Amino acid sequence: MIGQEWRNKIICGNAVEIFKKMPDESVDLGVTSPPYYGLRDYGKETKTIWGGNEKCKHKWNSQVALHDNLRPSKVSKKTIVGSNKNLEFRTGKQVKNEFCSKCGAWYGQLG
Predict the structure, then answer these.
(1) pLDDT tens by residue, 20-44
(2) Do 111 and 36 touch, CB atoms closer than 8 A?
(3) In 1-111, where do the E strands start and end?
């Protein structure tokens, strides 16, 4: 039987961490926020280290790139991302990524 702390609840948090805490065979559906390819910024506290070596004393190198999903509009002289109407993203949003020069880990958020 599933404990009451998990039953019929909306739980907000990092899905990777939350699902680790849940009992096996206890979830019918998990709804998460999908990656938006740098279109959202959830704040520094949501950044996570992905891949690489857990024991590495990381040395982070920044890499800034223009958003790879930008395209010119056929109707106007504006640049657009899909149907996003947010001007900041239509005009050359820059995405900052950090990679460890020692082990190749990535530090950031899938926002």
Answers:
(1) 888 888 888 887 766 665 666 777 7
(2) yes
(3) 48-50, 60-66, 71-72, 79-80, 94-100, 106-108
